[in-house]
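Human:
Care to share another protein and its fold?

Assistant:
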Amino acid sequence: MKKFLMLAAALCVFCAADAQTSDEAYMKKADEIHKKYLTIDTHNDTAMYLNHPDSDDWSVAKGQVTFPLMKEGGLDAAFFAIYLDQGPLRDSSRDSVYRFAMDELNLFKKYVADHKDEAAIACTPKEVRKLKKEGKKSIVIFALENGYGIGQDLAKIDSFYQAGCRYITLCHNYTNDICDASRYYNPNGHGGLSAFGEQVVRRMNELGMMVDLSHASTSTLEDVMKITKAPLFASHSAVRAIKDHPRNLTDEEIKAIASTGGVIQIATGRWCLTNAPKSETSVKHLADHIDHIKNLVGPEHIGLGTDFDGGGGMIDLKDCSQMKNITVELLKRGYTEKELEMFWGGNFMRVWEETIEVAREIAKGKK
């Protein structure tokens, strides 16, 4: 019996050592992948926090994205969204929120300029790829979360584009002038896109600006699909079949996005991933959503939009310094290097580039 117990103990030590070696091998492979391929997070709310670091008006974790943390986690690029809270649909409020959004963009540009040794702004896929190749700086791209900032003025879309925004999330949690939202659906709303919203989508196509359907209602998604000439895109959403939340996408919505060649960027908050306690929510739950989309429509339609500093994060992905934990989990699940290259940026970059090509074709047709 004593010999048996000694043998069992030796086997346990061997297995533990083997598991540690395996984890180290997975992390080594993850390091290689992050160095080799472009990695992008398509949505965080960090700009608002860094613009106002002393504010106490935060209901979620903050400080999840910094340029040093991006470097540590092997994250090359991130879309920093200017978030707009939904306000009244009247002219004075529309004008005020537009000015606010522009001020926030300018504040964050100053922040980046003050950290020019660490980060650089990109406005095109070509610029993103160049900065990745140089490997010296974190890559900042701008976005607008909530088309409420457009008001009822198409010219403001051009202004946001000229300011560097490369996608607009059509709405947030409530109906605005453009469309109906998914979270708090308004039965007296537009029934999808408004007539003005249709003009918004067309103008964004003309500019090569991505139309973000995260937060949008099913009827809005269906209406956009009828109008847009570019692939559909959701910057930070998840799978409703796994977590029944109105912000998540149904399988039919996922199929609709994929049918246009589009991409669904998975968010990382417990709110969209699982009913498990926050203390147990991990990258395994995130990977379940990635698996679901891969099995439903293929690996060409998945990416990452953390929603850091806006409700994202979990026990082993507390901030962007831990991004490689996602890669390790997907490697353990059998994802190939090619699939990981697509997930981390290949799929999204394809959609962005196709959106720009649509704008070129529209311009040619007008000549």
